[in-house]
Amino acid sequence: MFRSPSYTETKLISRLLFFLITISLSLNLQGQQWSLSEVGTLPEAVSNNAICEGLVGDSPFVFSFGGLDKTKIYTGIHLRSFRFNTLSGKSERIPDLPDTLGKVAAGASNVKGKIYIIGGYHVFSNGSELSSNKVHRYDPQSNSYLTDGTPVPVAIDDHVQAVWRDSLIYVITGWSDKANVPAVQIYNPAKDRWMTGTSTPDDHQYKSFGASGVIRGDTIFYFGGASMGKNFPIQNQLRVGIINPENPAEIEWSVETPDEQITGYRMASVLVDEQVQWLGGSEVTYNYNGIAYNKTGGVPPAGRVLILDSTQNPKLTYMKVSGLPMDLRGIASISNSVKYLAGGMLAGQEVTNKIFKLEWKK
């Protein structure tokens, strides 16, 4: 008689598979060819915009929602949204996000063909900020928004947002109005309902804003970000959460520091051949305008790719790739080996409208 594996057995299997896969990928890494090319432009320059993939008919598109314009001041935070046809190379403006306040640092996820834009924050003239509890639901096929989903229980921005089994969206830690929070909030699009997941430990190794991550199988990986404290110090921790498939709200958390010297902030995170990678971002934390919290001035892009290539002693391989932007809030995953970035900040805190195609070949 067939018996489903227990949660404990699932955790052991997950760790073993992670170990075997990453060893295999590490051995194959040198055989991969990686390319970055500029393939188009958005209708206007935008940064800190929520990025996601979606299909219109059978054509794969890149979608951009909200963000900051080239003025880099609070009045430049907006709701304007765009789409880019990866086949024709044409881009156009689509309906604005259905909100009353512009927002940056939201997240966008595709589940079963619909896109869900969650959280973000608005900056007012006096410098105060308001985190959003909105869930905007967008249908790429009709190019229209459905009614908003059930609000996020804890308003959130600059969070980690990742999809499990094309069914649940995990919203992990992030900033809520005045502080980082350990909340793990799980949205079920089919039921338009939120669940409370196992919170991360309530400490500054886990709590973060500007971190990024993915879910591979039943395992969450998120890295970097900014911690509470003077000048919001950058983080170098890799956090791992094992999801109980029998109860997806139950998560076992652990933390590692792959390399004391490798940090990251507002990077894009992606899976390539089941390998976890982080692209672009910066090595200094900064405010929405690209100016460092530590008052050293404008922040440069890191111009690199980080590749997770070990488990028992997690290691990040560091590969320099000039031209990658920072201030990223997502990536459009068109296929296992083809991804797109749209917008962000380049050298000199230049807000860009460039669209980059990233392709991995063996």
What does this entry look like structurally?
With 362 residues, this protein is mainly beta. The chain has one domain: Neuraminidase (6 Propeller). It has 1 helix and 30 strands. It has one helix spanning 7-28; strands at residues 33-41, 50-56, 59-68, 77-85, 91-94, 107-111, 114-118, 121-123, 129-131, 135-139, 144-145, 160-164, 168-172, 175-176, 179-180, 184-188, 193-196, 212-216, 219-223, 238-244, 247-256, 268-272, 275-279, 304-308, 316-320, 332-333, 338-342, 345-346, 350-351, 354-361. A hairpin with a 4-residue loop joins strand 26 (332-333) and strand 27 (338-342). The N and C termini lie far apart (42 Å).
Strand content: 35-45%
Distance between the termini: 42 Å
**What is the topology, as strand order, of the major beta sheet?**
1-30-27-26
Q: In terms of per-residue confidence, which ranges show pLDDT below 50 for 5 or more consecutive residues?
A: 1-5, 13-31
Structural class comes to mainly beta
The second-level CATH architecture is 6 Propeller
CATH superfamily name?
Kelch-type beta propeller
Question: Which short descriptors sum up this protein?
Answer:
globular; 362 residues; 4-stranded antiparallel β-sheet; 1 helix; mainly beta; Neuraminidase; single chain; 42% strand
Question: Can I get a quick summary?
Answer:
This protein is mainly β. It has 1 helix and 30 strands.
